[in-house]
Amino acid sequence: LKGRGLCMIKFAKGELEKIKELLRLSWRENREVGAKICGSKDEAVLGTICTGDYCSLELKDCRGKPVIGSIHTHPHSAPYLSEEDVIHAVLDGESIMCVCGNAKAPGIAVEFEKPVPFRNMVCRCWEVDKDKEAYESIRRIFKEAEPEIRREMEELEAKNRELEARGEKWRYVVKDYLTLAYIEAKRKAREYVKRILRSGYYEFKVFK
Known about the structure:
This protein is an alpha+beta fold.
């Protein structure tokens, strides 16, 4: 792959075509699409390609191979990692996180009225564990918050069960990132996330 900056990962032969298809699918469906990066940094391959919604995505495993990172798209917006992207990469124990998007976009979550040419689509990869102190600090902060996050989620689940027992619909969304404990942990981790984002990235073009 041709790019700029420090090349911290090399994809195996044929994987570039999979990344192209991943981008085409994201563009066509206007959804985030992605996959785990599996194997080794010298010969990386993509895991199962998964499709999410416009701004979120849940990735599956590497089908028996080691997980070294992940790659996902930001449809019609810039190829920058969000805070949430970095946190999930760190908590999942990933080393590399790549995001693909429109290099001409001014930032994250900017939707365009007109289609953007594929020649503007680039992928950027961050070595999220390069700053070891920042990486381990994020893991520590969320590990300490885990019991409280779990307690809040259990309370919401109990409230939903009470509603169900009365024949009413569930009212509470039970997601870890919506709990007050998670939001507080995210606030504490913010400076470490910024350090990872400032550590630099490797960029490559998929469509010539």
